[in-house]
Each structure stands twice: as structure tokens, then as C-alpha cells.
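Q: What does the assembly look like in three dimensions?
Context provided by user:
Components: two
Sequences:
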Amino acid sequence: MTPMLAVDWAYWQETLVKVGLGLVAVLLLTGAVVYLYLFKFVSFMQSRLGPMEAGPYGSMQLLAEVGKWLQKEDVFTENSDRIVFGLAPAIVMSSTFLMFVVIPAGPNAVISDLGTGIYYVLAMTSIATVGILSAGWASANKYSLIGGLRAAGQLIAYELPLVLAVVGVVIQVGSLNLQDIVHAQSDGAIFGWSGIGNPFIFTQFVGFMIFLIAVQAELTQSPFDMPIAESELVGGYQVEYTGIRFLVFFIAEFATAVGFAAVASTLFLGGWALPADWASESTMHWLGPIVISAKAVLLVGVVFWVRFSLPRFREDQLQQLAWKFLIPVALLNIVVTGTLKVAF
Amino acid sequence: MNAQLISLFAAETFEVPANIAFSIIAIFMVIAAIRVVTTDNVVHAALWLMVVLGGVGLNFLLLQAEFLAMTQFLIYLGAIIVLFLFGVMLTRAPLGRSDDLDNKQRPIGIVVGLLVLGLVSYSVIKTFGSDKLDFSAYDGSQAVAGNNRTEALSDAIFSQYLIPFEVISVLLLAALIGAIVIARRD
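A: Here is the predicted structure of the complete assembly.
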């Protein structure tokens, strides 16, 4: 970011600006995704218009909703554990925002270009489970507790395929760093033809599909919405939450969707980069963020498309899919990728 | 004061900031560790333990062991604590105080604790003695530094320490199968 603006900033100034810009970008994308898919896309799938009154085509609806949540009373149940109850949304939210630290949006547009990039993302997202479990427990509500337990069981089960699906890409690149993964794709070639670089969706298609399925489950979106099954558990671990605390859960849910979509596009679709000979690096400074945002928003669209198309899995089907199908396939994918990497 | 601060952050080595950060983390860890054993709620104890284990991860970061720190976060915070909480909540999850968390084995506990402390301190001091860590800033980007250390770690595991690594894998597999056998008595 600094070379583009040609200002020599101290490290803390640079970090402050990067964090600020990153926060704005994440919240804007989250808002766009909620409006585009949760309000409009699903409405059209169900042959209705969706919100139309607030702003042109209801585009200001989200601001109205946020305003509504912000002015609600802060309600606790009588027996709830207040400290843990209040802490739980904060844990979930920080786990969500921490994952954006390493996702690159341009040649220099990354808050901190960690060497362990993708591993860091997986570590940070896994912490959200603690927040969800404590939310379910601290609410002092049977439905919440069952929802929290279901969520934990599901998140643990689907974290394994998520991690294993990434390993294929890491083996191909030979680095955990997300910038290295992006460059490997934009500078790569398919059998000597470098026209579109080498996005790993071709070589790692199995990994890509497993990653998307696991992300769907990590986000607890239908067909994996056992933890918040509204017809059985009212709302799972979120039952007792209202007002600003519910808003935090809501933002975290959709920001995580954006984050996972951005990670998936970085790993499998080439990230912020266009193939090496399409655009110069100076162009990518401003084009990169647009490219990755577009890819991420498209992938979130896939998540929501599946969410509104498929009915909910039973608990045993859900666990069987993870342990008996996804994990063996992911392991096989790693073995095949490793063998091919050594062979060629 | 200001000039001093600037020279502190622009220095070639970050030994002083690392020491300050370590002190703060260590104080939090000690308080949290005491709360783990003195709190009268099992879930609170697990959450305090999370602070202790997270502090260990941050200390790994201070030692520039990035991969180890991420593993600490992923395994201990994301899996072990979750399993603790899961187990506690699945069997019984009392809200508020429980009176049956204390027992009369404090003297034995203190003796065991001191013995472990002595043993660990002795082995650490014996092994490392007056070795000094190189806290000088890495010449190059953060990513390159992190990757180099991760590569060095993986090279060590898969060459010099390959046999211990494989033995541990088999041991864990045996433990896993044993747990399944005990759980399924049909």
C-alpha cells in the first residue's frame, strides 16, 4: 500500500491505516453480501421482491436493520453466566476478523504477510468454536446448550476436511504463505500454456470441492444447519441473544462467509492476481482488491445458492459425510498430489 | 522520552520489546493459571486454561517460532479446549458455583506441583544454561523469515527426528484404537 501512495510511514502508522482500510473493506463486503444474497437472491428464488422500501430497491434495508438491533434492550436470562455470555460473541467476532489479517488483496495490500499464512487462517477460524460453545452454555437454556453441542460436534468434524483440502495446494506450491500461493498461480502454466496462468481449481478440483463443502458446514449454513435448526431448537446457541450481541453474531457469520470465500479464491482461483501477462504490477495495486472482492462475492453466492436449495441433513448423515467420505477422499487427494509432485 | 521510544522501535534487535511483552504475557498467564485451580466452576476453569494456553502460543511467537505458535492455537485452543468444554457440557454443565470441586489432597498437590516445577526448571537450566536467543531483526520480509523457520522445522522432523516422529504417530494411533475399544464394549 505504501509504494502506491509514495509516503514514507512509520510501521505503526502503516499498520493503523491497513487495519482501518481492511475493516472498512470487510464490513462493506459483508453488507453487500447480505443485501445481494440474503435479501435479494433468496427473494427472487422464492418469487418475491424482498425489501423494496428503504432506499432504491431496498438497498438501505441493512442500515435500518442495524439501527433496529442497536437500540434494543440488552437482555440476560435470570440464570445466565453474564461474563461468559457477553464474552462469547466477542470471541467469535475476533476469530472472524483475525482471519482477514493475512488475506492479500494486491501486491502489497495485506495487513501482515505471515510466512504461515494459510495455517494461521485455519488456526484463527478454529477458535470460534470456543465462543459458540460458551454462548450455548452461558445462556442457561436447554435449546442453547444442545445447539452449542451440535455446533461443536459439527465444527470439529468439518475442520479436518477443511485443513486436509488445503494441504494439496500447499504441496503444489511448497509454501504456506498466501502471496506465494497467488504468485504460483499467476506465473504458472498449464502444460506450457500460460494464457490463464495455472489456477489450482484445475489441478486441485477435488480439494476445491471438499473445501467448499467443509466451508458450508463451518458456516453452519443449510444443509448443515443442525446447530441452529429453527424448527427443533428455535435458534440453537443464539436463542437468548438479542440486540447488539445478536448483531455481533450476525456480522461474524457473514464476515466469516466472505473470509472463507476470499481464502478459497486465493487458494484455488488465483486470488487478487490476473495471469502474469494480462496486467502490469502497478495496475494490480488498484485492480487487485476489485478482482479478489469479485471472486469472493461470487463464491459466497455459491454458498447461498446451496443454502437455499437443499434441505437439512440428519445428525448421523452429517457426521458420516465428514468422517466416512470427505476425510478419506481428502487423504487420497494428498497422497496423489504428493506422488505427482515427487514424480514430476 | 520520545526519542528513546523511537530508538527502541527502530533498533536492530528487539530484545527489550520482547522482554516487556513476555513480562505482560507471563503475568496474565500466572493469574489465569491460579484461577484455573481456584475457580469454583468447571467451565470457567476451562476458559481460564484457554488464556494460559493462548499465552504459551504468544510466547512461541516472541521466540519467532511462528509455525509452533500457530500449531499451539490450532491444537490447544481450537481442539483441546473445545473437547474439554464439549466433555464437561455433555456430561454435566452446572451454571454458578459447584461445591464438590475441592478435596483434601492439597498437600500432595503442592508437593507434586513443586516437584514438577523443580524438574522442569532443572532440565531447562541444565540444557540451555546461559545460551542467548538471537533477537536481531531478520534481514528481509516477515514472510521469508517465517517460511525459512517453518522449512527448517520440517527438515529437522523429516530427517534427523524421523524415527521419533513415526514412533509418536504409531503411539497416537494405538491410543486412538484403545479409546475406541474401551468405548465400544458390544
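Follow-up: Residues 74-343 of chain A form one domain.
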